[in-house]
Amino acid sequence: MQVLALEAGMALLVPLLAGLYPIFAGTRITVREAISSYGLGEEGFGGSAIDRLVERMRGFPRPIMLSLRNTFRRKGRLILTLSTLTMAGAIFIAVVSVRASLLLTVDEIFQYMNYDAEAQLNRSYRMDRLEQEALSVPGVVAVESWGSAGTYRLRPDGSEGEDIYLSAPPAETNMLNPTMLEGRWLLPEDENAVVVSTNLLVEEPDLGVGDDIVLKIKDRDTTWRIVGVARIAQPVSVAYADFDYFARVIRSVGRANNISITTERHDEAFQVQVAEALEAHLDGVGLDVSYVQTRSQKRAAIDVLFNIVIMFLMSMAILLAIVGGIGLTGTMSLSVLERIREVGVMRAIGASNGAVLQVIMVEGVVIGLMSWLLGTLLALPVGKLLSDAVGMQTMNTPLSYTVPPIGVLLWLGLVVLLSALASYVPAQSAANLSVREVLAYEQ
Which of 41, 157, 168, 394 could cross-link to 246 by cystine, CB 3.0-4.6 Å? Predict the structure, then answer.
């Protein structure tokens, strides 16, 4: 109900506020000014520095020059139209930049994974058996046995924290090379040490390097010391512990429930082929397999999560672009209405339908190009702020910011198309008027 009431209030209030200035401005016009105003072409043009700059431009055809003069005639209306289109362009380019920054950051994060696939089992088996069976699968060249467990934090006040995936590779593993943001990685002599992911600190902001964390593992309260924070691309919070100590904690020394493998080739198709063969082989020898997932499949799952955020942000840009297009259509319709007699004079001296159409459509495209330039400049700081915000919310660290040229060029094409479409209908209606109709038109 609160949302509906807010929407109803905004629907009533915003049009009233938007109409205040035009109403007040209209009531201040004197009778003499109202009677003597004809809305002809030169009204409102020639007094500013921009107008004088346009006047000094040379080398363009006369219809183009006329379009430029008309563009700056109603500066207040031009500013309102530019504001919406500029904001739409800035958000569009910023969203494309955030997407590129997310992909770049995930690429950097996934460089820490030196394995091609992992197999999760529903219970623990002897390490030597797991590794022997995995190495017998064609395409597998290296195997490491890991431990893992689902856990959660017990806070000091007794409440339960978010779910945490506890992974336990050997401290001197060759299959992980994480990007450390704080602290250090695990050492062989570590016992109750853990390295946590950045998203765990988002969920548990009171924690940091050097703090103790109590984890509930198989109905037992265990205390660990956080020694490092790493950028880890996982949809859930992750903690890494040394395998040997973890095995002693869960009373499963010499046994593991997870194996990570390296394949002969590292392309996606070969990874999937080997993963499917590995899963079939482990099932065939009686091992209870939960899942086998390749590195590329894990990357695809992360991309899906980030694409949800990008689609939401992109929908905002599209809505703003639609509003800007509607506003530009209204602006061009009013501009044509004010210049009916001017169009009649052009037609009387021999201007063709195409020439009239060109003058008005070029005016709309010029407005679109101006908004593209302003939007591109505004997108640089907006994109950085948005990128940092998304990074902090998803990974507790700013993204590696980048602005892809494709975003700027794509918006250029879209805004030119949008401007041409928005100005075509008013331009066509003006071009279809006869000389008699336009000269007889009463303002």
Answer: 168
d(CA 182, CA 398): 14
Q: Where do the DSSP E strands lie in 99-139?
A: 117-126
> Do 250 and 309 reside in the same domain of the chain?
no
Over range 295-307, report the average pLDDT: 80
Residue appearing with tokens 């991309």? 303
Please check whether residue 361 is in contact with residue 125, taking contact to mean a CB–CB distance below 8 angstroms: no
Residue keyed to tokens 């003499």: 32
The boundaries of the domain holding residue 249 are 117-265
Cβ atoms 202, 190 nearer than 8 A: no
- For residues 131 and 261, membership in a common domain is answered with yes
User: Do 121 and 81 belong together in one domain?
Assistant: no
Q: What are 247's two structure tokens? A: 């095995």
Q: Which residues are within 8 A (CB) of 91 and not within 5 positions of it... i.e. 6 or more apart?
A: 313, 316, 317, 320, 379, 382
The answer to whether residues 391 and 257 belong to one domain is: no
Residue 380 falls within a domain, yes or no? yes
The answer to whether the beta carbons of residues 343 and 41 sit under 8 Å apart is no
Has this prediction a pTM greater than 0.90?
no
Residues 33 and 88 both lie in one domain: yes
Specify if 271 maps to a domain: no
Q: Are residues 215 and 319 in the same domain?
A: no
Identify the sign of the CA torsion 216, 221, 223, 224. Answer: negative
User: Residue 29 burial (CB < 10 Å; 0-12/13-18/19+)?
Assistant: exposed
> What's the total number of domains in the chain?
2
pLDDT at position 53 is 58
Phi/psi for 174 (5° steps) reads: -100, 0
DSSP-based three-state secondary structure for 339: coil
Which residues touch 84 (CB under 8 Å, ≥6 apart)? 320, 323, 324, 327
Would residue 60 count as lying in a domain?
Answer: yes
pLDDT by residue (tens digit) across 250-264? 888 888 888 999 999
pLDDT in tens, 366-395: 888 888 999 899 999 999 998 888 887 776
- SS3 state at 251: coil
Q: Name the domain boundary from 265, 295, 322.
A: 265
Contact 71, 367 (CB under 8 A): yes
Phi, psi (degrees; rounded to nearest 5) at 386: -65, -40
